[in-house]
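If you are new to this repository, start here. Below is one unmodified record pulled from the training split, so you can see the exact layout before writing a loader.
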Amino acid sequence: MQRSVVRYLEERRNDEAAKVLGRPPDEPLVYLERLRLADDQPVVLDCSWLPASLARPLLHVDFTRTALYHELQDRCGLRPDAGWERLRPVLLRRMAELDDAFEFRIAVEGAAARLAAQRRTKRDLGLLHKAYLELEQGRETARFRAADNVFHLAIADAAKNRFMRQAIENVRAMTWVPLDRVISNVFTSAHEHHAQILEAIENSDPDAAERAVVAHIQRAQQDLHRVIQ
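And here is the target side for that same chain:
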């Protein structure tokens, strides 16, 4: 089930957004920022700018479970036939931050995998197998990312360290929420490591578990650089 968490819905002024919309730089705009969830897992951070003179009725809409274009037509009598996005330049400016996040993931998730191989229970293995099967069945971005998130957080849960678990959840959300707007297909090459990670944890092999997780994150980082450049 998909829903959204509305982070901002307000009037703002923004020179760059106004220029893109063909409006004067000081014209008020409606800004809508939503964190979209699939099965309660974050998949997309969606940011929209609209001229306030046309879209002011949207300020009273609950966007947790409704679509922007539907409300534009229903409340404002508008039917957009064009849009504009600039994503790669923004992400290029964020690459240093994203590389820091991947470096952090390598250190923390590698250590968590070691602990998971040593501490996992039958229940932990059951959750990992279930998430792995979901990963095998779908490559659609939202579905895959949700299953991927469950898989990695199950590793963190199996490590039995609440600080690691919270840190991993936070850094994964920070890494993938803005990227899934750019990447229409998931990095299937990185998925090759999921089976190796699962096997190592199941076999209680901490060295192999750590190696597989590190290789997995490094591959995702390399693929990200290849796509954005």
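Two things worth knowing about this chain: The chain has ten helices and three strands. The radius of gyration is 20 Å.
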